[in-house]
Amino acid sequence: VVNIQSLSLCGLKPILIDIEVSYSRGQPKLVLIGLPNRIITEAKERISTALQFHGVRLKSKKTVVNLAPADLKKTESYYELPIAVGLLRLQGLLKELPQDFVFFGEFSLTGELKPLPNVIPLLRGAIKLGFKKVVLPAQSAVQASLVTDLEIFPIRNIGQIMEPNFFNAAAKNIKFIATTVLKPQTISVPNIDPIALRALSIAVSGAHNLLLVGPPGVGKSSLIQTMPKLLPPTTPTEHLEILTIYSLANKFFPIHQRSRPMRSPHHSSSVVSLIGGGHNIQPGEISLAHDGVLFLDEVTEFSRLVLDSIREPMVEHKLTINRSQNRVTFPAMNIVVAACNPCRCGFHQSKQVCKCSPLQIQQYRNRVSGPLIDRFDLQIYLTDSVVTKNSPTIETRDLHEAFLIQQTRFTPLSGMKATNGKVSLAEFKLKAEISPNATKFLDECAGKLRLNLRNYNQICRVARTIADLSGLQEVQVEHIAEALQHRCRW
Ligand SMILES: [Zn+2]
Q1: Ligand 1 centroid to 347 CA: how many Å?
Q2: CA of 364 relative to ligand 1 center, distance in Å
Q3: What is the pLDDT of residue 184?
Q4: What is the predicted pLDDT for the residue at 197?
Q5: How far, in Å, from the CA of 318 to the mean position of ligand 1?
Q6: What is the pLDDT of residues 256-293, one digit of tens each?
């Protein structure tokens, strides 16, 4: 009996697949157990073709290949390589079969191995299961090299495994993918109310959720579209996490550039498309925006059900999908940005005349629940009466420096986890350094403005980012005052 390992993924969770190959009594034939019928027929064909191509004929004995656990639906084709390797060992054509290796690969009809889909999620899963070495198709090796904790043994065909000393050879030194980090630059932004520019700079530097309310046509959306260019680059770990999620969702993300994603789901989106789920449990928009920006344009037009579904992930920074047998957790650490008009006609408190009654305005705003609105650290009310001559710009250097200060403050955390907007409250309070005067001032305001505890802490977090943008160690009264200004009454 020969045992060989591979794995399956349930969301991001790896499940060990044990492949057992043995001879049995009966008619000489190859029997596969534990795979769906459709795949078995194709797999048998391709495995024997690939072996024949390298001069290997299966012994005329009944050979049983069993993939366990049996109750798990295994729809992937990359078990063909480990099955073939098991057959080689069973026939004595491999002297040894080390147990710290994991195998992935699907054969083409010419016996070569095809590129592997989901390379990065699979390899990260293999690490979680304790594997140290992986044999995979050569065409996937470069992408695999992003996962640095595994020794990679790339092969083009099954023949290479039969070469003497294959398993004892050093892992191939694959040229690592060079990822580039954008240099600081000056970004042109729409000519918009300066308070919106300031709020955007704060949101980007400290990863704060941002709500922009204002009349149509003032440039709210085009302002927010500049965010991916303003955000600091991802850490290598964040980059890998993003690629993992995009790979699971069969979506493209640039592998060479350590930039942050931005997703803008349409307001007609369903709960499943936002949160994730579906037949094979795929990540939704909120996870595709992980370590980046989730932009909800025209937030009042989203269904209440959809908006309620993102409330918890906005606090937990992850979400769990429960399906009959499986529990799948996806990350959702992101800056949520929402934009909308102030009322149904759009012109409340603008230069044009608003036709809405106070009741209509109230009804319009009630489409977004209070608890959701409460989760935006920055809530900005823009006007259309601002005219400046110069076209404004933002220096990314300033924002990235403020971001770096936070990375040092909240070490050993890094990336978006180590920002004033996203770090845990306990960790934040421990290191916030708010001056006694500033605390006293906020305590007084909190009473007058009837701030709840959540709002109170949000003001502290935003004030901390404002102080970081000024490079100051301690939060002062002026920073608290500005943070209070960035909260309109919805
Ligand atoms: Zn109106």
Answers
A1: 5
A2: 9
A3: 85
A4: 93
A5: 36
A6: 889 999 999 999 999 999 999 887 889 999 999 999 99
Kindly report, residue by residue over 337-346, the tens digit of the pLDDT.
999 999 999 9
C-alpha of residue 216 to centroid of ligand 1, in Å: 11
Classify residue 404 as exposed, middle or buried by CB count within 10 Å of its CB (0-12, 13-18, 19+).
middle
Ligand 1 centroid, distance to 355 Cα (angstroms) = 5
At a CB cut-off of 8 Å and minimum separation 6, what does 362 contact?
none
With beta carbons less than 8 A apart as the criterion, state whether 180 and 258 touch.
Answer: yes
CA 66 vs CA 51, 114, 161: distances in Å: 19, 23, 22
∠ CA 5-9-14 to the nearest 5 degrees?
A: 65
For residue 339, report the distance from its CA to the centre of ligand 1, in Å.
16
For residue 62, the CA-to-ligand 1 centroid distance in Å is 78
Residue 428 CB coordination number (10 Å): 19
Q: CA-CA distances (angstroms) from residue 102 to 4, 18, 111, 125, 158?
A: 8, 10, 20, 11, 15
The pLDDT score that the predictor gives to residue 373 is 93
Query: What's the CA-to-centroid distance between 268 and ligand 1, angstroms?
Result: 22
Distance 351 CA to ligand 1 centre (A): 12
Q: What are phi and psi of 59, to 5 degrees?
A: -65, 150
Name the H helices within 79-178: 80-90, 119-128, 141-144
pLDDT at residue 173 greater than cutoff 70: no
Secondary structure element (H or E) that encloses residue 466, with its range = helix 453-469
Instruction: Pull the structure tokens for residue 409.
Output: 């403050």
Residue for token pair 């937030």? 299
Per DSSP, 157 falls in state: B
Separation of CA 343 and ligand 1 centre (Å)? 5
- For residue 294, what pLDDT band results from cuts at 50, 70 and 90? very high
Tell me the pTM: 0.89
User: What spacing in Å lies between the alpha carbon of 434 and ligand 1's midpoint?
Assistant: 40
Strands 293-297, 2-10: pairing is: unpaired
How many angstroms separate the alpha carbon of residue 174 from the centre of ligand 1?
61
Q: Above 70 in pLDDT, residue 387?
A: no
CA of 353 to the centre of ligand 1 (A): 8
Lowest-confidence region among 41-55, 121-135, 463-477: 41-55
Q: Are strands 335-340 and 210-213 parallel, antiparallel or unpaired?
A: parallel
